[in-house]
């Protein structure tokens, strides 16, 4: 093995960026951005492109029951759990070219550097692309990684349908047949990786504002989703006196005020978003019968989420503007704190390139949230312009991304040389 | 002419109620209620039924450019402006059997009493059914009455399209052809009536709560409609810190709080309703880019409406949660105070049957709001159960409705005998 920084220096920046641009052509939208919905033709083309790159580097290609793809650079001891690096290649319907793709192509760049430098390592290294991280075609997302980590069962995932009624199972069957035809080897039983590393765009404004090209992510916020129903009585807007009203909109307005107050009473970095809101019957001159809205509540500390959950439930037991409330938690994903040792390794690598970089907790989900339950896991972020993602305007600077990939390579080299096998 | 109360006594209550039930069969919905959208087949059948009744009573049938139908009981002096009584036969998509229909059938009951008693009157009496009061198929409503009163031009009305793309003009052509085929006479130039009387269900809870079978309506509240846009910036619910947010939902929430405060600061009987509300992109984990909502604002006093209009415009000039606001008044209908003499005549008639009846200002629109600009106009209300209308559960008690029709007959007799010709 060479010195700690040699693999980072060996990363071919031009080739890395050319790979990013090659991936951006698969499912390209005019004038920019991509559409590569999970398991559609473009998503399958992206898998094929990845496997072709791996073969050229002497990697073997593997796939599993969920269509996750693994490029394996063999180690001296093939029985050792592999070091896993990657992210996902699927996208939102009208997306940028970096969300997910960056992490896969970065893993490829690191493996390319290992291959080109003919570095011999004891432990296998694998680049992974997880199936359906976005959940845009089949909800919920992170299908491949959650199944791989044993967090979600296959039957539930396979039963999901897209808007055209196509099941995940049907779409997956085509994908698996293509992977087999392209010479990938089927893996019956998922391996437990030695560790998982994921580089991703921040999807937020912090790194750009601080001028840092990369940072360590120490964990992922927990997220509670709620659906709230406020039930009143539809009535004529002109003829119904104030005192006789059970106005579901006004009930929702009062309740939201109380929810906001509960959140701000904590004086903490809670993220509280009401992104969906609908009235029934939704007519200009009819008092609303029902208001329905969602809450997206995030915090890195499970105790804060529990406190707010209890407060929300108590508020839902009251009447608001003579309306009753039904509040249901539709999803609770606990916060994840990444492995301390792995975070420390990434921290050292970041500091070698950018001593002032902050540490962030991810506000968004990533495949890493599931892998963290299976093996030591950590992430790196690189900035995206104005924090914009899930939009063709999503943009990263090549200079930032290159630094991030070199930090990743730096950390990989360290893990391959110093971690106990 | 007979004494004042004789026409009221002469109203055939059984026949009146049988007519209500006959109309309820036209466009009947199972298990109850009706669907009789303006100018559809059922609405045309309702017109035909009305003309058949009129012919049986010796009335002539007339129609005009908007498909308004008039049954005319001739007076001794056909050159005198007619006393007009009526309402509308069209309905909301899923409606009760009384809204509108009651007023037309009540007019028919009065004319039947005149005919059966062989009462001779100097002035003609006409029963009218106005086209498209509801505005459910072709918006806005009150097409027939607003055109008749010279308040809206024909071209605008004729250009309206229903959800299937059919124009008012196309639907009306079929209706007019049927009316002609059924022997109705076309009236080129609208007459200016001597007066217009409309009996209608209250569509509110007041009369039922006070146990009054009927009351005088002294006017109709003015109504301002607004469309409000709150413009923020869509962003990731998980990754965007509070300080970086321009959350259109939270902007709308804050603005609505201020609007409510402006309304309640007046400490008055303002009716303020937000019945439509929508977010873009309306996704659980995306901060709203835009909130759009409507305001329905009503009051009998134009000065109160003007004060609130100015307050609303001032609030819209501010930023709310870093979001900008666009507030547009999409419709302003000034309050109407009905003719004092006509109100007094109805008041006397009501007192003869129900001395404790209140006087109400209508919170809902009616055809009378337009007629009031053309000729002396006033209305009667009869209670509907729980104030429910625009719903198959709309219900009136026969005993209340019969009293209301007799009050109407009482007033008509008074107008035919004592009003100056």
From TrEMBL, chains A, B:
What domain of life does the native source organism fall in?
A: Bacteria
Matches recorded under SUPFAM superfamilies = Bacterial exopeptidase dimerisation domain (SSF55031), Zn-dependent exopeptidases (SSF53187)
Q: Name one Pfam family in it.
A: M20_dimer
Q: What is this protein called?
A: M20 family metallo-hydrolase
Classification via InterPro entries: Amidase_Cbmase (IPR010158), Bact_exopeptidase_dim_dom (IPR036264), Peptidase_M20 (IPR002933), Peptidase_M20_dimer (IPR011650)
Q: Which organism is it from?
A: Halomonas tibetensis
Q: What is stated as this protein's family in its record?
A: Belongs to the peptidase M20 family.
Q: Which residue ranges does the record assign to the Peptidase M20 dimerisation domain?
A: 219-319
Q: Which UniProt keywords apply?
A: Hydrolase
């Amino acid at each position: 093995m060479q010195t700690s920084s040699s693999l980072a220096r060996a990363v071919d920046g031009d080739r890395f960026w050319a790979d990013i641009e090659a991936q951006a052509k698969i499912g390209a939208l005019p004038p920019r951005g991509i559409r590569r919905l999970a398991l559609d033709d473009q998503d399958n083309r992206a898998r094929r492109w990845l496997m072709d790159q791996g073969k050229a580097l002497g990697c073997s290609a593997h796939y599993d029951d969920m269509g996750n793809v693994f490029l394996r650079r063999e180690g001296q001891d093939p029985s050792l759990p592999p070091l896993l690096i990657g992210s996902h290649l699927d996208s939102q319907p009208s997306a940028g070219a970096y969300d997910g793709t960056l992490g896969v192509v970065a893993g490829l760049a690191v493996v390319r550097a290992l291959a080109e430098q003919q570095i011999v390592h004891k432990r296998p290294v694998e680049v992974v692309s997880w199936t359906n991280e976005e959940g845009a075609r089949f909800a919920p997302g992170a299908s491949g990684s959650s199944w791989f980590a044993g967090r979600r069962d296959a039957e539930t995932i396979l039963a999901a349908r897209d808007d055209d009624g196509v099941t995940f199972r049907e779409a997956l069957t085509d994908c698996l047949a293509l992977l087999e035809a392209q010479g990938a080897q089927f893996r019956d039983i998922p391996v437990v990786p030695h560790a998982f590393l994921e580089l991703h765009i921040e999807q937020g404004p912090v790194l750009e504002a601080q001028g840092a090209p990369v940072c360590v992510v120490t964990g992922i916020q927990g997220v509670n989703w709620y659906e709230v129903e406020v039930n009143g009585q539809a009535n004529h807007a002109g003829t119904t006196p104030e005192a006789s009203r059970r106005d579901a909109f006004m009930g929702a307005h009062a309740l939201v005020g109380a929810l906001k107050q509960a959140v701000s009473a904590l004086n903490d970095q809670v993220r509280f978003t009401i992104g969906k809101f609908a009235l029934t019957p939704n007519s200009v001159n009819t008092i609303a019968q029902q208001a329905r809205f969602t809450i997206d509540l995030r915090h890195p500390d499970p105790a804060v989420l529990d406190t707010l959950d209890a407060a929300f439930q108590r508020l839902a037991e009251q009447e608001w503007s003579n309306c009753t409330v039904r509040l249901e938690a539709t999803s609770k994903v606990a916060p994840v704190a990444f492995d301390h040792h792995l975070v420390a390794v990434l921290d050292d690598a970041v500091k070698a390139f950018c001593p002032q970089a902050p540490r962030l907790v991810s506000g968004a989900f990533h495949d890493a949230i599931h892998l963290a339950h299976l093996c030591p896991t950590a992430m790196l972020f690189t900035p995206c312009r104005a924090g914009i993602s899930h939009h063709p305007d999503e943009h990263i600077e090549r200079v930032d991304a290159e630094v991030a990939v070199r930090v990743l390579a730096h950390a990989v080299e360290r893990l391959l040389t110093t971690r106990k096998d």
